[in-house]
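Notebook, bench 3.
Goal today: get a predicted structure for Jg14726 protein from Pararge aegeria aegeria so we can plan the truncation constructs. The sequence was checked against the plasmid map this morning, with no discrepancies at the termini. Length recorded as 248 residues. Pasting the sequence as submitted so the record is complete.
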Amino acid sequence: MNNANSIRSSNFNANNPTVVVAHGWLGGENTNINPTIRDAYLGKSDTNVIILCWRRLAVSTYPTAASGVPAVGRGLGQFLTFLNSVTGQPFNRMHLVGFSLGAHLVGNAGRELGGRVARVTGLDPAGPLWSYNRNRLRGSDGVYVEAIHTDGGLTGLGIGSAIADADFFPNGGTSQPGCATSLCNHNRAYELFASTVTRNHLVARQCSSTTQVSTNNCRGSNFHMGNDDLNKRGSGLFRVNTGRRYPF
């Protein structure tokens, strides 16, 4: 932060899009989400991938970590303002991706930037303590805001309700094929997303109600879940059915 030489001496290229990845509770720089999403992007095209490590706070108790999310998000937003001032890269070339608590974190970063980032993607945004929290991810946090819900049941780790522009509910959004635990369902969100960055193959159907989502009865238009398209636009509820294992 505020060290222009650290950016100039890095591999940052303002001509390439920028993706920021934020882990969740108990995560850190070596958490699986980071190499999974990084490799998906770098395996496809030249991209600036920035990993936000907020481990010092994330390894606290869940309520402590959750309460610190807005401040870390604002700090990320201020860093991106600094990045913009040093490199000239516009906010509409930036995509913020966060998992669990990290989803609300990147929402707050987008809010700090006045909703000007091209995309914000929440990967199974954390549920506990967030249902009525004014600091949670919302549709105005970016030009286009997407949430992928994979563990939204009553005892799920994710928030089960629609909170973004477009909300995707893979396999109904509460349990995932091949998973026997809530944590497996939860982690599936970033695995699915990484796969769509590479393949852009998961096509959802729009749903007119949450009942249609849960009964697999959606009849609306097709819309791709995830991917790396900075100009993506859409809104509504969507369901997509996936396989049990990568690439799903």
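Helices lie at 4-8, 33-42, 55-58, 62-87, 101-112, 182-199, 210-215. The mean pLDDT is 97.
Flagging this for group meeting.
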